[in-house]
Write a structure and sequence with these properties.
Layout lengths: L2 H21 L3 H7 L6 H13 L7 E5 L6 H9 L5 E7 L3 H10 L5 E4 L12 E6 L11 H15 L9 H9 L3 E12 L9 H9 L2 E7 L14 E7 L8 E6 L8 E6 H5 L25 E5 L6 H4 E3 H6 L7 E4 L10 E2 L13 E4 L5 H7 L1 H13 L5 H4 L15 E4 L1 E3 L10 E4 L9 E6 L1 H9 L3 H10 L3 H5 L3 E3 L3 E3 L2 H5 L4 H4 L5 H5 L14
Helix pairs in contact: 1-4, 1-5, 3-4, 6-7, 12-13
């Protein structure tokens, strides 16, 4: 059998084995360890691009810190002849995958070690590190492991990773000590690092400690892992200090070899840019001082009840349980049940909606509830047997049945949206004329500063502001937010706050003069009390 046929046969066996091993574990078990295997075609694309970054015929020492069944090693064997491979090593922490993979590759140059890569002593002998590291979020990591990996990442790569960092960043940082100088790294990782705060340390590393060569971001609607809703990117770099203001290739969509979009961005431009997912679809922003939404609104996430099924009810449910209405306040339904972009109000402040909901929210002490509202007391006791009291938010709230202070906001914005949403608008701004608060699927927008003062003089101005917000172009919001697999976009309060609000400032002719004056200090009015 020829070598090509032998590798092809091994790859077919590997893919069949991968499917069988994945089926032998529950989705929950695989999620816990972040086990999402790399599709064969994608592995081949990544290896082909990585090898193209090497000098012609340079020999390769290969490391995969989270090798699984060996998709990247298989791709390496399909990319170069075996006499170019000096060394090949992989780590796999899970014996469920390690044993079959070690047997499959027993006749090759690959050594697979059944240990935790992050606990190994680094040996800097590898000039090619390719990895799809475990995608494990920070809250699934043990605190002592976090501290250990933070120390090691800083010692090896200079990255000061925060406690909110996912496991994949630790893998990347720790691997720095395993690389030869001028070695090539290729990492298939979630694209969220390009936007989120904890990704700053990784971006600083890519810009200052190594020479960043290319970032390819896949279309979020084309998830690379069918069992994980995560938007992916491939990052290539060389272990060498970068030249000043060097150029990085950003590509998007399609695949590595035929991207939909491609452009060169200078490292100097990236240094000042917080949202790398803007590239290559957008041009570099010229630094100008422009009004932002934060100049006009204080933005807060809506209420996180801890258990919506327990705390949120309709009027019939409240009546059936004989609960006191004064312990509740109105709350808007989730966006899927709110088709309109303006919520009208009756004379009492109730939203005029077919689906009227109320959130349980009282500051009364438990003994007073037991004495004056026995039915409510009995209902609260059910939280212990129903599991509500075990929820994180309820355990850390005093009293556990009270809610965050979120007064009615005149404008609310949906928190999640899709770029292919009907009408092409992923996020909706809703004019709220009622006294209803909102849950954390919305962002509550409270007028401040010059806008708050202007609204006291002219309350009807809020409608013009609402229309100006809905006139924002989708890209203005998408550029500031973040994206997940399947094309799901999210806006955090700080990200919405950073959106260009020039069109709002035009509604306030005196704003520019006010903003430049010594009196231009932000203050909250009655909306945000």
């Amino acid at each position: 059998m020829s070598l090509i046929h032998e590798i092809s046969q091994l790859e077919r066996e590997r893919m069949a084995m991968q499917a069988e091993l994945d089926a032998g574990k529950t989705q929950s078990e695989r999620n816990k360890l972040g086990q999402f295997s790399t599709p064969g075609l994608l592995a081949n694309d990544i290896l082909a691009h990585a090898i193209a970054l090497f000098p012609h015929n340079q020999r390769v020492s290969f490391l995969d810190p989270a090798i699984g069944t060996g998709s990247f090693y298989s791709a390496l064997c399909q990319s170069i002849p075996p006499d170019r491979i000096d060394d090949a090593l992989g780590f796999e922490i899970d014996s469920h995958y390690h044993r079959p993979a070690a047997q499959l590759w027993a006749g090759s140059d690959l050594t697979i070690i059944n240990r935790d890569f992050t606990k190994e002593f680094p040996v800097p002998r590898f000039n090619l590190i390719i990895c799809n590291p475990p995608y494990v979020r920070h809250h699934h990591l043990d605190s002592s492991d976090k501290e250990r990996m933070q120390r090691m990442s800083f010692r090896t790569s200079g990255m000061k990773l925060s406690g909110l960092t996912g496991l994949y960043c630790y893998f990347l940082g720790i691997s720095h000590a395993w690389m030869q100088d001028d070695g090539i790294g290729g990492w298939l990782i979630p694209s969220e690092f390009m936007d989120v705060n904890y990704g700053r340390a990784l971006k600083n590393y890519l810009l200052n400690e190594v020479t960043l060569l290319r970032i390819h971001r896949f279309d979020p609607n084309d998830t690379q892992f069918p069992d994980a809703l995560v938007s992916s990117a491939v990052v290539f770099f060389k272990k060498s200090k970068p030249l000043e203001n060097h150029t990085i290739v950003f590509s998007y969509g399609g695949n590595l070899h035929q991207p939909r979009l491609l452009s060169d961005i200078s490292s100097r431009e990236l240094t000042d840019e917080t949202k790398w997912t803007r590239f290559p679809t957008a041009k570099v922003r010229i630094k100008t001082k422009y009004p932002k939404i934060s100049d006009f609104f204080q933005i807060k996430r809506g209420i996180a009840t801890g258990d919506n099924k327990f705390f949120i009810m309709n009027r019939d449910q409240i009546s059936e349980r004989r609960l006191p209405m004064e312990a509740f306040r109105p709350i808007l339904p989730s966006p899927r049940y709110l088709p309109c972009n303006e919520v009208l109000s009756d004379p009492t402040g109730m939203p005029m909606l077919e689906r009227q909901l109320f959130v349980l929210d009282t500051k009364l002490p438990l003994f007073e509830i037991e004495e004056n509202h026995p039915h409510l007391f009995n209902y609260l006791e059910q939280a212990e047997t129903g599991g509500t009291l075990d929820r994180y938010i309820c355990r850390h709230r005093r009293p556990w049945y009270s809610q965050d202070a979120r007064p009615p906001a005149p404008i609310v914005c949906t928190y999640l949206g899709r770029s292919d949403a009907k009408g092409g608008r992923p996020f909706r701004f809703i004019l709220n004329n009622s006294k209803a608060t909102v849950a954390n699927v919305y962002l509550a927008m409270y007028p401040v500063g010059f806008l708050a003062r202007s609204l006291k003089r002219n309350p009807s101005l809020i409608r013009d502001v609402w229309e100006a917000l809905n006139a924002l172009q989708p890209y203005q919001l998408l550029d500031e937010g973040r994206v997940y697999g399947g094309g799901l976009h999210k806006l955090e309060p700080s990200e919405l706050a950073n959106v260009d609000a020039t069109n709002i400032s035009r509604l306030l002719p005196d704003f520019t003069e006010f903003a430049s004056s010594s009196q231009a200090e932000l203050f909250t009015d009655d909306f945000a009390d």
